[in-house]
Amino acid sequence: MARCRCAEGACGCSLVAGTNTTVDGEGTPKDPWVVSAGDHGYLAVADTATLDLQLLGDGTSANPHLLSGTVIGSGGSPTFVDTEEVAFTVSAATPPEVSALLPLLTLTGGIAGHVLTQDATGVFSPMPAATAPVGAVATGHGIKGDGSAVTPLRINLCSYDDLKAACAP
């Protein structure tokens, strides 16, 4: 261990603990200095009239802080502020439905009529609006129509006795 150019058994060096630190030991080979850093500050939450915050964890790598918030019903709808990049529309439904127009976003290279669809892996990509062309939908007993605008799919409802007779083995 480095000894600060000290003679055996005597040393004029000293370590002083700073903010949120401690220094233990005498600085000798048998009792070396041990510098420990405590908290690196505190994270406090402050609720507002419209947001209830919760802080979990102690800030260690084993138990990191987790900050979450719950919007408090304030008797009205949330406020969304339009910007050059985003224009919001909020419905009057309960709960409100929010949509956003992104006027600066341009998509190129797509095929007209395709829509943005999410696949089983969660990836979004352009695909045809319908997976089966109009008229290609197979129908069974009691289902009428071809799925087109002229003849939409319909369920032919019958009485319980008719249904029971159709389903009997």
Describe the structure using short key phrases:
two-stranded antiparallel sheet, 5% helix, mainly beta, single chain, two-stranded antiparallel ribbon, 1 helix, 3 domains, 169 residues
Reconstruct the topology from this structure.
Layout: E1 21-24, E2 34-37, E3 51-56, E4 66-71, E5 87-90, E6 98-101, E7 114-118, E8 124-128, E9 143-144, E10 154-155, H1 160-167
Antiparallel strand pairs: 1-2, 3-4, 5-6, 7-8, 9-10
Note down, in words, how this protein is organized.
The chain is mainly beta and 169 residues long. The protein folds into 3 domains: 1-41, no CATH class; 51-101, no CATH class; 131-169, no CATH class. Helix content is 5%, strand content 25%. The chain contains 1 helix and 10 strands. The strands form 5 sheets. A two-stranded antiparallel sheet has the order 1-2. The longest helix is centred in the last third of the chain and has 8 residues, at 160-167. The protein starts with 20 loop residues before the first strand and ends with a helix. The model has no long low-confidence stretch (mean pLDDT 74).
Determine the mean pLDDT.
74
Q: Kindly, what is the distance between the CA atoms of the first and last residues, rounded to a whole number of angstroms?
A: 91 Å
- The helix tally amounts to 1
Helical residues, percent: under 10%
Low-confidence region ranges:
none
Characterize the main sheet.
Answer: 2 strands, antiparallel
Strand content: 15-25%
**Overall 3D geometry?**
elongated
Structure classification: mainly beta
Total domain units: 3
Order of helices and strands: EEEEEEEEEEH
Q: How many extended strands?
A: 10
User: Quaternary state, please?
Assistant: single chain
Q: Largest sheet, order of strands side by side? A: 1-2
Calculate Rg over CA atoms: 35 Å
